[in-house]
Specification:
Length: 427
Amino acid sequence: MEFWKLFFVALMPVLKVLLITALGTILAIDRFNILGQTARKNLNTMVYFVFYPTLVCSNLAETITLRSVVRLWFMPLNILLTYVIGTVLGLLLVKLTRVPNHLQGLVLGCCAAGNLGNLPIIIVPAVCKQSGNPFGDVIVCTKNALAYASLSMALGSVYTWSYAYHLVRLYASKFCNEAKIAENSMENPMPITKTDAENPSTCSTGSPFVSVVGDKSQSQDHFKNFEIHCTNSDHGKTREVCAQKGEMMMEQVKTLVKKINLMILFTPSTIGTMVGLIIGVVPQFRRLLIGDKAPLHVVEDTTVMVGYACIPLVTLLVGANLIKGLNGVGKQFAVIVGISVMRCIVLPGIGVGIVKGAIRLGFIHPDPLYQFILLLQFAVPPAVALSTITQLFGAGVGECSVIMLATYSCAAVSVTLWSTFYMWLVI
C-alpha cells in the first residue's frame, strides 16, 4: 500500500483518541468541573475494579483458546523487554540530566512502563475498521485485534504493578531515608546509627500491600541464641522457656507474613485475565458461556456490555488528569524532553530491531496484525497507572502530571508516524 494511505489509516484512530481526550480535559476545567477531583477518583475506582477486569475477561474468554495461547507466547517476553530496555534508557537519562533523587523512580517508571492498556485496545481495532486496512477482513481483524490488545492490557497491568511499582517504591524509600537522616542530623547532632537510618519511623511505605521488612541479621541472631539456649538449659526449664520463645517466634513469623503481602500482584485486571483465560482454554467452560447456543450466553453478553464502557471512560480520565500538568510545563524541562525522546523515538526504534530479529529467528508466527501490536508496544507513552503510584508514595505527583501532558502530546504525532511505518513494515 502507498505510504499516505497507511498514514491516514493510522491517523484516524489517533484522532479519535485525541478528541475524546480533549473532551475529558474540557470537562475537568474549573468552569465546568464535571470531571472534578472527586468525580475522577470515583471513576478511577470504577474503572480499576469493574470496567478493566470485565473488558479483559470478556475479550480473552471469547477470543483466546489453548492453541492461540501457545502461538502468543512471545508477547509476555516482548513486554518484559520493553520494561527492561526502558529501565536502562531511564538510568541513562538519570545520569545525563542529573535527575533529583525524589524524581529518579518516576523517571525510571515513565521510561519502563508503557500504556499497554487503553491505547492498543482503542487504536488496533479502530485500524481494522478503517476502509483499506492492511490486515484483511474487518470482522476477523477486529476479533483478533481485541484478543491481542486484551492480552497486552492484562500483561501490562501485571508488569506495571509488579515491576514499575517497585521501581518507584525503591527510590521513594531511598529519598525518604535520606530526608530522615538529614532531619535527624539537624535536630540531633549525635551520629545516627545505621538502624535508625534504614528504618525511619515517619516514612510511609506508600501502599497497604507492602511494608518494610526488619533487619534479617537481627532475626538470625535471635534464632541462633534461641537454639543455643534451648540446647544448654536444664531439661525442666527448657520446655517452659522454649515454649515462650516459640510463641514469640510464631508471632514474628505471622508479622512477617502480613508484611510481605503478594496481593499487589493480584490486581482486578490480573484476576479478570485469569478468569478469561480459564474460560477460553477449558472447553467445558467455553461451551457453557461462549457462543449464541451457550446456556449462559447472557452472562457473556452482560460482561461485554459492561467492559466496553471502559474504553471511553479511561480516555476521558486521561484527558482530565492531563489538566493538572498545564501549570508546570516549565519545570524539569530537560527531564521531560528526555523521557519524551526515550519513549517516542529511541524505544520504538529499538523495538523494530527486536521484533524483526524475532521474526527472522522464527519466534513469531507470520500474522501481520500480531507483529503490528508487538511493535506498537514499544511506541506507546507512559502508563497512566504511574499517576496512581506516585500518589501512593507522595513523590513527584506534580511532576508526573507534567510528564504525562508532555509525553501524550508528543505521542499524538509519534504514535501516528510509528503506526504508519509499522504497518508498512509488516505487510
